[in-house]
Amino acid sequence: MDRILPIGTAFTLPQGMPIRLAWRLLPPPWMTPGGPDVVGGSAMPLFGSLFTAISGMNAQSRALSNISGNVANSQTVGFKRLDTSFDDLVAQSGVNGDASGAVSASSTATTDIQGAVEQVDNPLSLALGGRGFFSVARPVSRAADGTASFDPQTMVSRAGDFSLDRDGYLVNGTGYALQGWASRADGTLDRNTLVPLRISTSAYQPVPTSQLSMSANLPATPPDGAMTSTVQVYDQLGNQQSLQMSWTQKSTDVWTLTVTPGTSTEAIGSIDLNFGPTASGTTAAAGTLGGFANGNGLAGSSFAQGSPATVSFNADFGQGQQPITLNLGTFGTASGITQYGGSSYEMRTLSQDGAAPGAFSSVSIKDNGEVVVNYDNGRNTVMGKVPVVTYADPDKLGRLDGQAFTETAEAGSALVSDAGSNGTGQLDVGSVERSNVDISAEFSKLIVAQRAYSANTKIVTATDEMLQDALNMRR
């Protein structure tokens, strides 16, 4: 027959009876279901106070870890501090009181709290004034031609210290590539997919002139002789060529336009312009263009009140026929070419759409997010656009190295929008968002954590002394 006796219990045995001694460690009464109440009973929860104090030390260590990380990253662009929250843990609750509990610490994100925006010298730096993130991608490898492969995981960041790397990608200080909507061949944006924005530094291809636009007033009483205007155009190789346009009054309200290449005495062609209702036989008001007639090498558009008045012709600069359209305004209105009173020829505007070849000059980002490549010939091309990504609960995003965050189910689905729309922040070009860490506040929290940790160590020391006193009772 086995009996459990406390240590120190006296007992007698019949002579000759064998005895087997075994030691068993029993839990304290307050940890036994149905045992005495901690507060109301006789048990003394020394071990409970010890465990509680240790949990307090662990919790303050967690707080100290967050504080140290915040202070270390106080100057990190786009860093979001971690605060610490404490939760009470109740080990056991009874009608006469509660057992010694514990405390747990957890980190609280401040991802949605704005940091200070500071202007910098880098024109490609971006900051967000308000909610949202930049979409970024992490390069994992590079091919021989510089094309990068990226981690497919969805990532966002507020670190906007972007610059061009050697392969033309816009990357921030930690190497994450900026993603956006890329431009299609026709200049429109592909808003269905976010891709890493890569800037091409190749030369700008020459654009042969195909459109001329002219605005001038032909005097109703001109001097003798022709009135001329010369415009510089570009051929198919990007070379600059000249076209001379001569105006001669043929009769009242009728003028003849002759187009001649600057390197030739042979005209490309001519055409008559009729002004007002009498000469044109249309409803055009006096002094406005009412129609074309007698085209020779030049073809004019048909009259319709308010419709474009254009003259089409082919120019040959040595590379074959180059079609060009001259826009002279609209029929029946005082835009483009007119014939009003006076005796002098008045040229207002004369422009063309061609361009010489150009070398890469720079890249810039507009306030609306458009990424523009500039060339030394004065032209530019929109390569893409930077959108803003928002989440329902950004504080629930997962944290990654390099001030980046990743999607989680708790944060919600990503909403990709233009900057400044759907509640997103505005882009601030040439600026960066600093860390949202307040050094003075962190040092205040450091003092509190240090004092709380010391207080818990005092409890551990006091509990140890009391346990030692209990053990000394047997001496």
TrEMBL record:
Domain Flagellar hook protein FlgE D2: start-end pairs: 219-354
InterPro entries: Falgellar_hook_FlgE_sf (IPR037058), Flag_bb_rod_N (IPR001444), Flagellar_FlgE/F/G (IPR020013), Flg_bb/hook_C_dom (IPR010930), FlgE/F/G-like (IPR037925), FlgE_D2 (IPR011491)
Main location: other
Any one cellular-component term (Gene Ontology): bacterial-type flagellum basal body
Flagellar basal-body/hook protein C-terminal domain location: 430-473
Keyword Transmembrane: no
A GO BP entry: bacterial-type flagellum-dependent swarming motility
SUPFAM superfamilies named in the record: Flagellar hook protein flgE (SSF117143)
Domain Flagellar basal body rod protein N-terminal: 52-80
A matching Pfam family: FlgE_D2
Cellular localisation: Bacterial flagellum basal body
Keywords: Bacterial flagellum, Cell projection, Cilium, Flagellum
Function: A flexible structure which links the flagellar filament to the drive apparatus in the basal body.
PANTHER family, A to Z: FLAGELLAR HOOK PROTEIN FLGE (PTHR30435:SF1), FLAGELLAR PROTEIN (PTHR30435)
Family classification: Belongs to the flagella basal body rod proteins family.
Designated name of the protein: Flagellar hook protein FlgE
Organism: Roseicella aquatilis
